[in-house]
Amino acid sequence: MDQQNKKNPIIPAIVAIAVIAILVTGVIVFTGKDKEESTNSTEQVSQNTTPETQADSTALNEQSTSSTTGIYKDGTYQASGSYNSPGGTEEVDVELTIADNTITAANVTPKAASPTSKQYQSQFVAGYKSQVVGKNVDEVKLSKVSGSSLTSQGFNDALAEIRSKAKS
């Protein structure tokens, strides 16, 4: 009788393995259904799109593209840009020629009063053209050119005014 009352240790292990297998299978099955339902709902949305809806979506994309690119009148434009330096407010004069929304020529005239600003503006003038000429007007935004970061601010200030003039 003592042997019959003793439990076989293998049976609980088999039961535990079976329970784990059932749980894992359930998780896999339900996860697979979620993915399948998600895919099916996406396909249904695509299939339910009418040609009119697709045309509206295309028009919206075209509108957002044209508004971010900008349409500029061909021509030569001039503006002055200013920035604050440790020595006070400084200016640069900027002249840009635009054709087909591209800057085809650029000229910056230094207007600095302090000797240090004159030096930085001269460095800027020596190195900015490669970052401007041949570029789309909307893509140009200078940060630091030939060691000069403040003159770049003045250039960007003038560029904003030129963009405004060229759009009108």
Quick summary:
It contains 5 helices and 3 strands, in the order H-H-H-E-E-E-H-H.
Walkthrough of the structure:
This protein has 168 residues and is an alpha+beta fold. It has two domains: 2-68; 75-167, Sufe protein. Chain: A (Alpha-Beta Complex), CATH 3.90.1010.10. The chain is 55% helix and 19% strand. It is built from five helices and three strands. The chain has helices spanning 2-5, 10-47, 51-69, 115-127, 150-167, and strands spanning 75-85, 88-99, 102-110. A three-stranded antiparallel sheet has the order 1-2-3. Mean pLDDT is 78; it is low at 33-68.
Question: What structural keywords apply?
Answer:
2 domains; Sufe protein. Chain: A; 3 strands; about 170 residues; alpha+beta; about 55% helix; single chain
Layout of helices and strands, plus pairs?
Layout lengths: L1 H4 L4 H38 L3 H19 L5 E11 L2 E12 L2 E9 L4 H13 L22 H18 L1
Antiparallel strand pairs: 1-2, 2-3
Count the E strands: 3
**Form type:** elongated
String of helices and strands: HHHEEEHH
**Can you identify the CATH class of the largest domain?**
Alpha Beta
Classify the fold: give the CATH topology of the largest domain.
Answer: Sufe protein. Chain: A
CATH architecture of the largest domain: Alpha-Beta Complex
Which class of secondary structure composition applies to the elements?
alpha+beta
Parts with pLDDT < 50 across at least 5 consecutive residues: 33-68
Radius of gyration: 34 Å
Helix content, binned percent: 40-55%
Let me know the average pLDDT.
78
Q: In angstroms, what separates the terminal alpha carbons?
A: 105 Å
Across the major sheet, the strand order is 1-2-3
Major beta sheet summary: 3 strands, antiparallel
